[in-house]
Design goal:
By secondary structure, the chain is mainly alpha-helical. The protein has helices spanning 19-38, 50-70, 74-78; strands at 2-3, 11-12.
């Protein structure tokens, strides 16, 4: 069995597992996820809401647009077009 440590984290395993083997894998996988949860892997700020996320994304977009309007960062995009 292989579990990618990047991306989607999909499991790649042989299809010839017996039902018992697959049950063991499932139980171990769930136990590992529960241990990770207890250890704080999926911590989140309880004050974060969809509204605050949308506001933060909007603010980030506006900051980026303002920087582009002032020409900040534009030199990188046009580097090499001076030929």
């Amino acid at each position: 069995m292989a579990l990618s440590w990047v991306g989607t984290g999909r499991l790649i395993f042989s299809l010839d597992y017996s039902a018992e083997d697959f049950d063991i894998v499932c139980r171990r996988f769930v136990a590992a996820a529960q241990a990770m949860q207890v250890d704080g892997w999926w911590w989140h700020d309880s004050t974060t809401t969809n509204k605050t996320i949308r506001r933060n994304v909007l603010a980030e977009m506006l900051r980026h647009a303002a920087r582009r309007a002032r020409g900040v960062g534009h030199a990188v995009a046009t580097l090499g077009s001076e030929r």
